[in-house]
Amino acid sequence: MSSVGGWFHHVFxxxxxxxxxxxxxxxxxxxxxxxxxxxxxERAGRSVVPVSFWFFSVIGGFLLFIYSLSRHDPxxxxxxxxxxxxxxxxxxxxxxxxxxxxxxxx
Length: 106
Fold this sequence. Notes:
Residues 22-93 form the Lipid A biosynthesis N-terminal domain. By secondary structure, this protein is an all-alpha fold.
């Protein structure tokens, strides 16, 4: 059992740094998108993806991308990098859709 305690101490105490703190904050922001999506769906009684889901995706994904660059993790860099493109594209489509009715009315 002491080896498990030693592992936890090494991973969560000895390695703690600014980058690890940033990684935890980024992961928390990224995770919030799932909580928001779940709550919005429960309220609506159907599956809903609120716009805030995409904002948390971009913010959390960007911070996780920065974290992965600092860790030199090619798998994480590629995954978060592609995700950022997808999240930004979804926000652009939402923005364009909301802007379009206003242009047609004017």
